[in-house]
Design a protein that fits this description.
By secondary structure, the chain is α/β, with parallel strands linked by helices. Helices cover 45% and strands 10% of the residues. It has helices spanning 11-26, 31-38, 42-55, 74-86, 101-112, 118-127, 144-165, 228-241, 259-267, 288-298, 307-322, 325-330, 338-341; strands spanning 168-178, 204-211, 217-222, 246-250, 272-276. A five-stranded mixed β-sheet has the order 3-2-1-4-5, with helices on both faces. Helix 1 packs antiparallel against helix 2 and helix 3 packs across helix 4. The longest helix is centred in the middle third of the chain and has 22 residues, at 144-165.
């Protein structure tokens, strides 16, 4: 879209456009998306945001107010946005991996020789439509090309093979839950940290499960360690209970690729096939969310007193999940998993 020529618009129209654009960014829209939708040149939005930061919406009106000079102009503001959105702190030789107000403050001082307080930096970032968020951590060993190939080529091929064989596609994963894991918050008097009495003993439980996009959910409590034997035990349960061939997708854990596993799979004569996710890519497996739900949303908020109680509570939650296919289907709606339902 060609950029609009502001010289051809009257002052009142420009005033309305400037104010509405900044309001949209304050409401959470991307500054880049807002200016693109308006058809103006990209630097324009940052000039407006810079003016707004110094003097509020009055600075965007047709009659310009004169006051103290801006600490950061539109070009500099646009550069800050590019740094925070497009780069990581380590690329500027900072020790930390997350952008904080302090790091942005230090970067602005280093690059522009402008000193700002943490409060001013926070206001600046929010004015550009940025908010503090909990990041998704990725293993640096992950190969982006390998992940793209999985999404665009390998999984679509598995889906076609499954359709031809009338097979059920399942994603599986193992997990351990512990008695000393706690999550969530509780209400209390301000400044007074509440206490919840629980056992000081440490014990755990090992589990494995498999999920499908149709809402199928299979799980097994592992007696002992998570190893090749326990994985084969889970495979036996799957093939025994399923009326259709099973295409099981797992990560590359050594227990999944052991010789005994290969022998067992081969003996199933097509009723069971294994496929492996790209290395260091747990976000591609919807079954990871089963354990997040079990730990963070359920068990982590409960009081556990004994190994037997932990087992009973876990089984109760898992059995409820098995009876709730809509809950299992919801695990596949994460943006990272769109490739499965495409």
């Amino acid at each position: 879209m060609p950029s609009n020529d502001g010289r051809k618009l009257d002052h009142k129209t420009l005033e309305v456009i400037r104010i509405r654009a900044v309001q949209q960014v304050q409401a959470g829209e991307s500054s880049e998306a807002v200016i693109q939708a308006l058809g103006f040149s990209r630097p324009g939005i940052y000039e407006w945001l810079a003016a707004y930061l110094e003097s509020g919406y009055e600075a965007l009106k047709a009659k310009r107010l004169y006051g103290r000079p801006r600490k950061l102009n539109g070009r500099q503001l646009r550069q800050v946005y590019t740094w925070v959105v497009g780069y990581q702190p380590q690329q500027f030789k900072f020790e930390y991996a997350l952008w904080t107000r302090g790091l942005v403050r230090d970067l602005i001082k280093r690059k522009f020789r402008v000193s700002l307080s943490d409060v001013s930096v926070g206001r600046l970032l929010r004015a550009m439509g940025l908010t503090p968020q909990k990041p998704l951590f990725r293993a640096y060993q992950q190969d982006p090309d390998r992940v793209a190939r999985w999404k665009q080529e390998e999984y679509p091929c598995i889906r076609q093979l499954a359709k031809a064989a009338s097979a059920e596609i399942l994603f599986a994963d193992e997990a351990s839950i512990r008695s000393d894991y706690h999550s969530g918050t509780t209400w209390s008097i301000k400044g007074l940290t509440p206490e919840v009495k629980t056992t000081g003993a440490r014990f755990g439980l090992n589990l494995i499960s498999g999920v499908s996009g149709r809402g199928e959910f299979h799980f097994k409590v592992i007696e002992g360690k998570l190893n090749t034997e326990s994985f084969i035990g889970f495979l036996k349960d799957l093939t025994y209970k399923s009326e259709r061939p099973v295409f099981l997708i797992v990560d590359g854990h050594p227990a999944h690729q052991a010789r005994k596993v290969k022998v067992y799979v081969a003996a199933q004569e097509g009723r069971l096939q294994l496929f492996f996710l790209p290395p260091y890519s747990p976000e591609l497996n919807p079954d990871e969310s089963v354990w997040s739900y079990l730990k963070h949303q359920r068990l982590g908020k409960m009081k556990v007193a004994s190994p037997d109680q932990l087992r009973k509570m876990a089984l109760k939650i898992l059995r409820r999940m098995k009876k709730a296919p809509s809950l299992i289907q919801s695990l596949f709606r994460h943006p990272e998993l769109k490739y499965i339902m495409a």
